[in-house]
Every structure is written in C-alpha cells, then in structure tokens.
Amino acid sequence: MKISNRDIKIFFLGFATLFxxxxxxxxxxxxxxxxxxxxxGSK
Length: 43
Fold this sequence. Notes:
There is one protein chain. Helix content is 86%, strand content 0%. By secondary structure, the chain is mainly α. It is elongated. The termini are far apart.
C-alpha cells in the first residue's frame, strides 16, 4: 500500500480539526491550563 500526499494532508487536516473542536469544547479548562503554564514559566 502506497501512502500519497493526499493521505498525509487528510490525516493532518483531521488531526487539526479534532484539536480545534476539543479546544473549543473544553474552553474553560484550556484557558486555565494556559494561565497555569504561563505562571509556572514566569517563576
């Protein structure tokens, strides 16, 4: 079985779509984790 450029593009598009959906769905937790990481990096 040969993997084409089209297959790779579809894979990454699906991955990016799932990441965006998860980020929007769990927005409050995402913002909390970003703030926690920012504070930890500042110390």
